[in-house]
Amino acid sequence: MPTFTSRYIVAACVAATSAMAGRMFPASMRSWTFDLAAVVLVALFGWGYYIFSLKQASEAVRTRLCERLAERERIARDLHDTFFQGVQGLLLSFQSASQRLPANDLTRGLIEATLVESDRVMLEGRELVLDLRTRSTECNELGRDLTAAAVEFSRIAAASYQVVTEGPSMRLNSIVSEDIYRLCKEALHNAFVHAAASEIVVTIVYGRRDLRITVRDNGRGIPREILQRGSVPNHWGLIGMRERAVKIGAQLAIASTPRLGTEILVTIPGQLAYRVERGPTLSKLFSDWPDLLRTRKYSSHQLRLR
Q: Which chain regions cross the lipid bilayer (predicted)?
């Protein structure tokens, strides 16, 4: 459709007049392709800004976690090189002194019993230092670790448990694997020890965009006032879980109904959770929908508490 030509005369505060000619395209004459292109351009700009912001936030969290990992390794190395070696030297001196006492001396018996106990304490300390180094540098299989934790807790409280994994298992980022494991282990501990539950189900979903861990029980639930306050007086479990979630950039959601049970959901972005860099792309965004639908179906049918 052709355009039309208009002529406008503008009068100013002076006596003279001025004329200007130009072409105008009315709204009814604009093409719909222009509107579509504008919408697409705005959408692409918003998506690009989202990707940029997400990468900036991920890099900031990754930098903080790398610094914390380096500090942990430094502490473990210093403990091994200085403290434990010094304590071991003191224990050897006490052992040498005890051997100079008569065999039937009561003091020698007390010293030897103390040395046996000190060896046990030293062994536990070395295991903690080793755990501090190895768990921070190795990507342990989360399902296996949580199953081992459930076996340990089942000796304290009798409850049936199940650890279910969905999606292809991925190696976790060594920077956050320890905090993910500790956070989920604390949720398991609460379910076994405090919830008085008869059934506990842990679901690990390795999604393309994020890692989701759900710990669900059919126990007594958490009172509403405790959820609102955020912690139990003189107990630090819930506080520690929230602090760990903040440290690794995870989202922690707790839903509980008295006498029906509790569900704890931990969601960690894939860029932070997985060892391989997984930047969000448009194709991955659309390819996540089948995974999300499968997870929703799994949660509503297979994890229904009885």
A: 31-52
